[in-house]
Amino acid sequence: MTRQDEATDIRDAIQAGRTTLGIELGSTNIKAALIGPDHDVLASGSHAWENELADGLWTYSLDAVHAGLQGAYAALVADVEQRYGVRPTTYGALGVSAMMHGYLAFDADDELLVPFRTWRNTNTGTAAAELSELFGYNIPLRWSIAHLYQAILDDEPHVPQIASFTTLAGYVHRVLTGRHVLGVGDASGMFPVDPATRDYDQRLLQQFRHLVAAKRPGLHVEGLLPEVLVAGADAGHLTPEGAALLDPSGELEPGVVLCPPEGDAGTGMVATDAVAPRTGNISAGTSIFAMVVLEKPLTSVHHELDLVTTPAGDLVAMVHCNNGASELDAWAGVFSEFAAALGHPSAADDVFGALFTAALDGEADGGGLLAYNYLAGEPITGLEEGRPLVVRTPDSRLTLANMMRTQIYGAFGTLALGMKVLHGEGVAIDTMFAHGGMFRTAGVAQRFLAAAVDAPVAVAQTASEGGAWGIAVLAAFTRAAAEQPGLTLDGYLTDRVFADAAVDVAQPDAGDVAGFAAYLDRYSAGLAVERAATEAL
């Protein structure tokens, strides 16, 4: 097939609505990805945004959500038109994903009661601790139920008015379809899910009802939570109002089927073909987290590990770190400014490539340097706030190579502490699949991550597309499942999506493993310095 013929086929698929659209709202970027019938990315669009600190809590306004959706969608349509000379008006399916957890509470008229409280907030310590003890199940600070219970404990005036609460993905899905639903993976970060029923745990719902009965009699949390749907379910259709919100130009037609809205953890699993037991994935962005699909439940409760599910409802152990690649981005920005000051302005990708490549020449343990990427609090290490730090002893070797290796190690430091707990549970991992912008420079972050988790790390060509591509694939699966009852998500990914995917696998290097272990010992000891910095600065 000639390139012209291929472009004609793509144009025909776009005009006939045989493409699938995925939109993911990340921490700093809202991205839209359009995929064809073969799941290849045909076009993309993005919109940058940032959270804001309001009254001591991290939030995004709903106006910013709406504007960001429109911006990302408009950029996608413009990309389609530039590439193929047509503008899409409909799709075979559509999906929305976003940052998991957090708290969006609405009254009976669907009016937001308090500003959206994101996963990044750590003000829920009392609630999370009480719920974890009551349930015998780790409830992290960022979970939606912790936010609700903390609001109850604090006697916040909005609590009696709550008619529903949800996550960011659940909110966007509702404004597009009118349905108060959530994919099981995202739902499992609101309230514990029973993997046997793939729905909220009924025993724990009852315990919660009894817990709040004295303060809030009649509050039945099961009536406030979204309905849980597994991957492949029909989660509603794009309404005229939803179409107008996404595309104010009026070109987008209503009626498109939507898949269940999912969290970024679920789309990361899909984007890396890591939904089967003994596989896992690591998503590296503003936050960084690892997901490992379990063969059986864990024997103990660990505050370092969340228990969530795949989009199909299988149990997953999650190591979630609030801090990821943002500090790396900041240092890359400094070096970009330096290059420009020397008269050699460089593209961001070139700067990252040079810095990451330099890290390969660093000493295996980072030369005695330490880096903490803590821009925010980090529950795994017990820190309520963060202070980015570079720390070294007088006899350390400060070189560009050691500095950059240490910065990459620092991005994986807290994650490695959580993974050690998982290894202590005897959880076997055949392969960890990684995705995110950190892995665009081949053979660097991937190699160091293999050392950090002491397991093979695979990166596919789709890795840099991330969650927008993952939710687009989930939307395509919804359409396929309707045509083929009994089709499983694992089978669909293995046989149709990744059958011919190019995957690069990095095995752990013994020298790197030993070097990272030495670094991690120093990292653990140095947490006292990080803690002192949060108290002093």
TrEMBL record:
InterPro entries linked: ATPase_NBD, FGGY_C, FGGY_Carb_Kinase, FGGY_N
Keyword tags: Carbohydrate metabolism, Kinase, Transferase, Xylose metabolism
Residues spanning the signal sequence: none
Pfam families referenced in this protein's UniProt entry, alphabetically: FGGY_C, FGGY_N
Keyword Iron-sulfur: no
Residues covered by the Carbohydrate kinase FGGY N-terminal domain: 20-245
Keyword Thylakoid found: no
Any one GO molecular function term: kinase activity
Gene3D superfamilies: 3.30.420.40
Domain of life (superkingdom): Bacteria
Record-annotated Carbohydrate kinase FGGY C-terminal domain positions: 281-477
Family, similarity comment: Belongs to the FGGY kinase family.
Name under which the protein is recorded: FGGY-family carbohydrate kinase
Species this chain originates from: Isoptericola haloaureus
